[in-house]
Amino acid sequence: MKKKDLEIELEKVPRFEDPDPSLEQYLTPASIAADVLFNAYANGDIRGLKVMDLGCGTGMLSFGSWLLGAGSVVGFDTSRKALDLAISHASSVNADISFKLSDVNDVNEGADTVVMNPPFGCQTRRADRDFLKKAMESAECIYSFHMSETLDFVKEYVKKNNREIVYDKIYKYDIPHTFTFHSKERHSVDIVVVNIR
């Protein structure tokens, strides 16, 4: 599958219905998800392997991993509404993906690779920390999204856990007007995707 074909398929992933601001429910842009996952695939971190998506939402990174030939894919989220959308879409495209309702701290299984776009901590300070901790407990290889200005913190946190960031890439992340506290029609932020090993 070409990266552009992957992006086209990911555009079909359902949007959040009535998103919860406390969970920072924003759909990962298909173009960014496709680029990150295609890079992971090229690195040998997807095909034939078990992939976990922590904070999967409606399943953007889960579906992308499945499309790229992951041996098994498991998505975890605390939102029943988001998981219902993910499950419905999986059924419509015959995707063999397991979606589980769970707080990230209660996840107790491992994987070869974790892919995740955790809350950035804009609503709940340090919300991404639990995700990083669980990801490092669960897998040797992690691809994770963060606000670009937190990169130094993420590097330090990873180092304290005897891991290292072997790759990082900055993306422009467009956040559409979603909640009442948004003052602009569209807001662009810089995010960084890191590969932790």
How would you characterize this protein structure?
This protein has 197 residues and is of the alpha/beta class. It has one domain (3-12, 27-196): Vaccinia Virus protein VP39 (Rossmann fold), CATH 3.40.50. Helix content is 32%, strand content 25%. It is built from six helices and seven strands. It has a seven-stranded mixed β-sheet with strand order 3-2-1-4-5-7-6, sandwiched between helices. It holds the Pfam family MTS. One of its GO terms (molecular function) is transferase activity. This is PrmA protein.
Q: List the strand order in the largest sheet.
A: 3-2-1-4-5-7-6
DSSP strand tally: 7
CATH homologous superfamily annotation: Vaccinia Virus protein VP39
Supply the number of structural domains.
1
**Unreliable runs:** none
The succession of helices and strands, N to C, reads: HHEHEHEEHEHEE
How many strands, which pairing sense, and closed or not: the largest β-sheet? 7 strands, mixed
CATH class descriptor name: Alpha Beta
The second-level CATH architecture is: 3-Layer(aba) Sandwich
Helix content: 25-40%
Protein name: PrmA protein
Pfam family, one: MTS
GO molecular function: transferase activity
Organism: Candidatus Methanoplasma termitum
Secondary structure: elements and pairs:
Layout: H1 3-10, H2 30-42, E1 50-54, H3 60-67, E2 72-77, H4 80-92, E3 98-101, E4 113-116, H5 127-138, E5 141-147, H6 151-160, E6 165-176, E7 186-196
Parallel strand pairs: 1-2, 1-4, 2-3, 4-5
Antiparallel strand pairs: 5-7, 6-7
